[in-house]
């Protein structure tokens, strides 16, 4: 007769306000390129992160007067992949103080990035989302999406990030 093992239910991870504010400051203020892009976090959980970019004249492609530049899309999705990894690392180390977890992001960097442009980026604002598919001890894999204000998927991304 086999023995049935019952595991206790997993408690959902809820980030402390000081951790969320610390991540927001790093992402929106200390990473200068994110400030130039105008990336603003709208949601951060261990499972999924979201942000927005509002259209501004400096984000428009040279020959496409009303479309967001592909480089802005790529950079935004790359940043979101990194943000998703930050959230996953933060959730993995909830036994540490928020300040200590924030210091773990110093060595985070992109090692591979793929962007697929599905539709033109036309609109006044855009939503970006990302999630971690796998968080290893050295490398994290992510999936990202770039959406129009109407919710249509405009671009997708996949990235690998060094975490050690």
From TrEMBL:
Superkingdom classification of source: Bacteria
InterPro entries: ACOT13, HotDog_dom_sf, PAAI_dom, Thioestr_dom
UniProt domain Thioesterase: residue ranges: 66-153
Gene3D superfamilies: Hotdog Thioesterase
Name assigned to this protein: Uncharacterized protein (TIGR00369 family)
Source organism: Tepidicella xavieri
Family: Belongs to the thioesterase PaaI family.
PANTHER family: ACYL-COENZYME A THIOESTERASE 13, THIOESTERASE SUPERFAMILY MEMBER-RELATED
Gene Ontology MF terms: fatty acyl-CoA hydrolase activity
